[in-house]
Amino acid sequence: xxxxxxxxxxxxxxxxxxxxxxxxxxxxxxxxxxxxxxxxxxxxxxxxxxxxxxxxxxxxxxxxxxxxxxxxxxxxxxxxxxxxxxxxxxxxxxxxxxxxxxxxxxxxxxxxxxxxxxxxxxxxxxxxxxxxxxxxxxxxxxxxxxxxxxxxxxxxxxxxxxxxxxxxxxxxxxxxxxxxxxxxxxxxxxxxxxxxxxxxxxxxxxxxxxxxxxxxxxxxxxxxxxxxxxxxxxxxxxxxxxxxxxxxxxxxxxxxxxxxxxxxxxxxxxxxxxxxxxxxxxxxxxxxxxxx
Length: 292
Prior knowledge:
Layout: E1 6-9, H1 22-35, E2 40-43, H2 55-69, E3 74-78, H3 84-96, E4 101-105, H4 114-125, E5 132-136, H5 138-141, H6 147-153, E6 159-164, H7 168-177, E7 183-186, H8 192-197, E8 202-205, H9 208-223, H10 227-246, H11 255-263, H12 280-291
Parallel strand pairs: 1-2, 1-8, 2-3, 3-4, 4-5, 5-6, 6-7, 7-8
Helix pairs in contact: 1-2, 3-4, 4-6, 6-7, 9-10, 10-12, 11-12
């Protein structure tokens, strides 16, 4: 399975009552595929506010986005949790809906060791035929899956990729030690180009909601050998990569990108508690960032 090089971790649109806005979700899929050139959509990942979505909402979103995409991009279901049994259940249900793959986050809160991580992901892989992407984000989970554990999991046929929100060092080790067809994606927009440079395959992005077309151009330039052009685009986009998370102060994802989408005319709404919308100062920063 090739999910492409530019994948967007899609926000979940909400209406004023905090319920899923299905009309705007349909519009968002078209916008991301046609205007922002995304090759894949992660549905109900961190950026999609998965912790506040019910299983029923997630399954409806998987089916809805799959139908609306009409084969124009790959659909990757966020089905991971800190319960192996629950992750297996949701992954099997997503598979029935015809998604193209699943994204499985490192278990959070219960803090498993490396062997526990291996058994968690291997156990899920044994119960599905879906291609699986691991998701290593220690800033949110408090546990970092080692490069050695990832390389070990990469030997399992349907574990086909990893999304790394760690360091370029870790990406380098995984790219060097895993099978040739195992894909390494950056989960940090600012590290997309460095990840490609050390053998990574692409980016699972938040900023691609806003600058996806430019990111696609950057990736294409690098792959075609025009490293200078790729570097120019990276440097131009770098303030947006950083600003969507740092604002003047760190702002939890996806509060900033949802506000940015609203500025672009996409009525994706606000975030569900415990996340909150940007303050006036943060909103002014985002507005200035997009105008720069």
